[in-house]
Amino acid sequence: MSITVKDVEHVAALARLELSDREKEQFTEQLNAILKYAGQLEQLNTDDVEPTSHAMPLVNVMREDEVRSSLPIEKVLLNAPDEEDGQIKVPAVLE
Fold this sequence. Notes:
By secondary structure, the chain is mainly α. The chain has three helices and two strands, in the order H-H-H-E-E. The chain is 40% helix and 4% strand. The protein has a two-stranded antiparallel sheet.
């Protein structure tokens, strides 16, 4: 399979892109190079390769959940920029 300038023009029209003649030629060459490389990959013998979704095994690096008591509200409010009635006060975001 190969890509033609007509194919590039069609895709450009669908994407509402205006391409110069030089860009059309350039994209045609680049897309054909990609297809050629994909063709090389199709020739590889992958009979003994197990299908995977990830190249490396995934490991969850998070700690186990454990129940702990939270900070007292007084300590939390020490880090707040402003406080009112035991709550963190923030600037209004609506007018």
